[in-house]
Amino acid sequence: MGDIETPDSTRSRHAIFSLLPSKEFVTSRKGTLLIGEVVVSFIDFVCFVVSTAAAFVTAPLIEFLAALFLLFAYSTKINERFKGFHWPLMDFLRCVSASIIFFIISIISVSKYPDAASKAAGLFGFIATIFFALDFYLIFNDLANFLKAGGGGESTDDPPTPPDDSDSDSD
Predict the structure, then answer these.
(1) Rg, Å, the chain Cα set
(2) Are the beta carbons of 52 and 117 closer than 8 angstroms?
(3) Are 18 and 123 in contact (CB under 8 A)?
(4) What is the DSSP track for 108-149?
(5) Among 155, 159, 158, CA closest to 146
(6) What was the pLDDT predicted at 128?
(7) pTM
(8) Alpha-carbon distance 165 to 148, whole Å?
């Protein structure tokens, strides 16, 4: 009777598949960038673990976990349930800090450490810098367009009026 599946096995299979991101999110621009950030951060983490520049292993690990959390949050739409956080701003700050940190540790690992694993970690760090910089550029454009369209704060539909010069004393 190995052909018949028990209800427990199908239930556990559905639970595992519910953790995976949806196809719509994976094929979106944000999903593709987050998956790229997760993959490159993990590869950079592994390269730093096996290199002599193991002092820099914490930064790729933290960025990997943060990108993995946001991938999970965006794919399961947790960000729509928790309105207290300003998710795009939090994501923007994460990407800015990650791109700066990856750039700095990549320069140090390529220039200071002679082993091949450190050079590979530096190379993947530069690739991660590009991923995170592209992500924060796109987030910044989205936020700027949102604010320009009047999504937050005051409306800027009317052009500013020039000051009235009728009260001037120059004749």
Answers:
(1) 24
(2) yes
(3) no
(4) HHHHH--SHHHHHHHHHHHHHHHHHHHHHHHHHHHHHHHHHT
(5) 155
(6) 95
(7) 0.74
(8) 30
